[in-house]
Design brief:
13 helices, 4-stranded antiparallel beta sheet, alpha+beta, 48% helix, Arc Repressor Mutant, subunit A, 294 residues
Length: 294
């Protein structure tokens, strides 16, 4: 099968092995020093259709990017999350597990403007990506706006990228009646959001039914939960959580969030058991067998 596998919830998104590996490790490998066997991770990624070559290449690239650290014991290779990966995953958790859980504040807006030099393109690109994850849209080059108070998150981000000296931040509100200009600016593309939320709900909403969940064995529960998490984590990049007065869509977002929360929790036990058995080499818990009737 191709190394690129279409997600079920959003036909336009493509699963990439590096991104999927980080999603999976972020969900199951968060204790400091905990490690996974390389062969187990190759098998795990294979469950999503990736070849052995593609899986091994993805893990090697994550090492090169400083997100994984390789450990050897004889002929065996293990991976642990790097401190940088732990920081990024913690930041991601805060965003993913708070996204859509509160009503947007119409009078709380954040504007970020920066003059990061061209010779620091890496930092510029990282800042742009992580601002989008926080719900910011770009109204023009180096000027970003979000429909919420993001002062603390942005301060931490600027410090982490060591670009605080090149950026400033404004907090305030937008004058009534001028909000629609933001949509016309192209800062965000919100036209397709309801369709994407609808696709997510159609794909995963079936597992709100306990009978449907009970049909899944641990491997299937793991794959469904990982795909769902990977798909859901894309919403913060595309949905700025604008107030309904600007861009209606809160109902679809709320239904998707409710669906995600319920299924993520309901499938946690079998999914974690499967990951532990394959990637951590832990034997599954024995199943209690009732004694034969006398």
């Amino acid at each position: 099968m191709s190394a690129r596998v279409r997600t079920l919830a959003d036909g336009e998104a493509m699963l990439q092995p590096q991104d999927l590996a980080i999603t999976i490790l972020g969900a199951h490998l968060r204790r400091p020093g905990e490690r996974v066997w390389s062969g187990g991770m190759v098998e795990i990624l294979g469950e999503f259709g990736f070849s052995t070559e593609a899986a091994r290449a993805a893990l090697s690239r994550l090492v090169s990017r400083g997100l994984l650290q390789r450990q050897r014991e004889g002929r065996l290779v293990f991976y642990v999350l790097s401190p940088r990966a732990h920081e990024l995953l913690a930041e991601g958790d805060r965003r993913i597990f708070s996204f859509g859980r509160g009503a947007p504040a119409a009078d709380a807006w954040t504007v970020v403007w920066h003059t990061i030099p061209e010779d620091r393109r890496v930092e510029r690109a990282q800042l742009a990506q992580r601002l989008r994850f926080l719900g910011f849209g770009s109204v023009q080059d180096a000027t970003w706006i979000a429909a919420s108070d993001r002062e603390q998150e942005v301060r931490a981000l600027l410090d982490a990228l060591d670009v605080s000296d090149f950026a400033c931040m404004f907090l305030g509100r937008i004058s009534r009646g001028t909000e629609q200009a933001l949509l016309l600016s192209g800062a965000w593309d919100v036209e397709d959001l309801e369709r994407r939320y609808g696709g997510f709900i159609a794909e995963y909403g079936r597992y709100l039914d306990a009978d449907q969940r009970d049909k899944l064995d641990p491997r299937e529960a793991f794959v469904v939960r990982a795909r769902m998490l990977h798909s859901f984590r894309g919403f913060p990049f595309g949905d700025p959580e604008l107030p309904d007065t600007i861009a209606p869509g809160a109902a679809a977002r709320a239904e998707a969030v409710t669906t995600f929360d319920a299924i993520y929790e309901a499938l946690a036990e079998p999914a974690s058991a499967h990951f532990a058995e394959v990637a951590l080499g832990q034997s599954p818990a024995p199943v209690a067998v009732a004694p034969p009737a006398a």
